[in-house]
Amino acid sequence: MRIHVPVLDLILQKLPVTIQLASMAIVIALVIGISAGIVSAIKKNTVWDYAANAFALWGISTPNFWLGIMLIFLFSGKIGLAAGVGLRAASPRTGGPASPPRSCRLSCSATPSRRS
To answer: What is the DSSP letter of 89?
Structure first.
């Protein structure tokens, strides 16, 4: 499909959302990873240590594409808490831009599983 738009314009159009998603995923991965590491170091050879290690192993072993699909299925299909696709362009209450945590919560929660 040809849309006859310069590539640079397309890249610049999508760059803010990409940066938002990547930065939120990094923050989530750091919070989870550092917290699990601290708990694992403080509570060595306890249930908490084994749980943190099992969670880290699960996060590394689970493919991001599968986790993303399962989160979409669960939170938008079964529970109805999130939109299934896309970012919301406007906040439902104010009509203004959506806040980052509300607009990409599924994407941002699935992405750091590979990094934690």
So the answer is: S
